[in-house]
Amino acid sequence: MKKVMLAILVLVIASAFVSQQTKPQPGGLKAAMTRGKTVYETVCLACHQVDGLGVQNMNPPLAKTKWVLGDKKALIKIVLKGLQGGEIEIDGDKFHNPMPPQESTLSDQEIADVLTYIRNSFGNKASLVAVGEVKAMRAKLK
Amino acid sequence: MKKVLILACSVVFAAAAFGSDTTRVKSSSTGTVKRDEAPLTLPTGFKSVVIAADLGRARHLTIAANGDVFVKLAKLKDGKGIIHLHDKNGDGKADEVTGFGNYVGTGITIKNGYLYASSDEDIFRYKIDEKTGKVDEGSEQKIVTGLWNKNQHESKSIVLDNNGNIYTNIGAPSNCCQVQDRVKGSPGQDPCPILEKAGGIWQFKADKLNQSYPEGVRYATGLRNVVGLDWNTEVNNLYVMQHGRDQLFQFFPELFNQKEGAENPAEEMFRLTKGADCGWPYCYYDNDKHEKLVTPEYGGDRKKADRCADKTKSVAQFPGHLAPNGLLFYTGSQFPEKYKNGAFIAFHGSWNRAPEPQAGFFVVFMPFKDGMPSGKWEVFADGFSQLPKDVTSGRAKYRPCGLAQGPDGSLYVSDDNNGTIWKVSYSK
Question: Does the keyword Signal apply (chain B) (predicted)?
């Protein structure tokens, strides 16, 4: 009996460890989405709008675009370092407002949260962004 | 079998073509006019007709003496940046749509036998015969070159006076000249170095080739971005509409609540004389305090006027972020007397009012007497956005941008989202 208990304990610890590995966000997707929504509304909404569709020729949409759903590293870099106006082109349309760099205003956790939020809102569905991925990119860009 | 397939395909194509014929009027060229597209909401006695559609990013427009319409595009259509609309059969709609000029831009105007058009860096001109609308494309001359185009506020609007000068705005590639543009907490640069090359109106000679900054005169400064401008021939002055700065609520929530951030700063109309300083980036017009005050990035607290007290005062103020893109002083005789010498302003519509509902997307009228506003502004043409009331989306269906007056006194309005051109006329 004791052995079985021990085995179960080991199993529980192991599974907790595994889930820690596959759930790179504290509290999982739901908690990250809630935190990310707050960041979005404070920092991003002014330009990208409530519906994530942006503004024609000014601020690019975040819905269903490779800029958001594609390479996470590139996406993290955009948030950290910003973009000049005109750098984003979607379906032949350019967007003229610059994206301000957020490296001095947002923490790694906040960036991971807000990117997780935009990758899973406005009809988007994509993998989470982990705080470690943001940390690594920030270190690389230093 | 092959024959059957071809036959089947033909029938399907024919059916499709027939189907689309019920909603579209086919023109002889590339343009098509949707029959019942977007009737505008107008005062009693006015009606609107869509004369052309689907031109794409139709910015400013101008009308020749024969009624031909020239539209400047911010995105090439079939490789052309200037569209020439001609009504061959006299049904009031453009049935001959041609183009020339392989550059994108905003400004276009006709004066003294020349058609002037701008890219985002240069100004060109062409000989035009206004009686026939014929443009001599081979006569293209570059009169101004090398103006700042740094992607933000890059468009160049143009207008001429009656003394052989042409005026253009050079928009500041910045929100309010912070060290780091649009980064919360980044201070304003003092003095703002942008003002040497942008953030104002420059004056050039209308007939001299290849002018740039050394040959130009900085006619007015302290203007963040201007798209709508016009020469008022009644009082012989330049009038411009400034787009005010963004993000007061987001950057200074302790000074502006969400609603105040949507309403501030004012979009301002200035009557300019040479040497005017309208205050950007150091000053902004506060719509709640009715005063020009120091910008928060420069130490402003919504009370201090300090260095802003002696800046050029605006002659009219409008709610924040409505984006005035077209200005026209009406000199025609077709409209009722109250419109004579008054100002029509095309508001492109807001984005920086979110999460408050967006606003604008209309053409307003403001009565004038002796070059000064003589009454409150009123909405003249509405119905462009087709967004349900109080929806916060930034994606309007049509966005009014340019205004022009026809030889018969009709008012033309362009939309730079779909490229729709309306002609508005009046009859008792």
Answer: yes
